[in-house]
Specification:
By secondary structure, the chain is an all-alpha fold. The protein has one domain. The radius of gyration is 50 Å and the shape is rod-shaped.
């Protein structure tokens, strides 16, 4: 045999089976890795769905809170308007009861300088 034939035989007898074994193991590792990646992808999809559900629930709760807050605000505003009207009406009633305008006129007339005829200057 020649050197080339001997080298070929050694490669076929020693290296080729080892390469085949390595290739088989590599295929097995690839299958396991692909399975793991698929599991990880599925898990990420599940987590993504959960986040979407949580986001929808949060949006719904904010919308409910906003509606309640606006309703409460409208109630408070209506109450303030009612109280403003009551205070204004009470103020007008008190002013009328005290008749301040007429009293002020009398005070101003009494403080005006008198003329010889006893009437004040206008």
């Amino acid at each position: 045999m020649s050197l080339i034939d001997d080298t070929r035989k050694v490669l076929q007898d020693v290296v080729a089976p080892d390469l085949k074994a390595i290739n088989v193991r590599l295929d097995a590792v690839e299958r396991v890795m692909n399975l793991r990646f698929e599991q990880v992808d599925e898990r990420f999809e599940q987590i993504g769905k959960r986040f979407e559900q949580m986001d929808r629930r949060i949006d719904e709760r904010f919308a409910q809170s906003e509606k309640l807050t606006l309703a409460k605000f409208d109630q408070v505003l209506a109450r303030i308007e009612l109280l403003t009207n009551v205070v204004s009406a009470n103020h007008q009633a008190e002013m009328k009861a005290m008749d301040l305008d007429r009293r002020m006129e009398r005070i101003e007339l009494s403080m005006a300088p008198k003329t010889e005829s006893g009437l004040s200057k206008s």
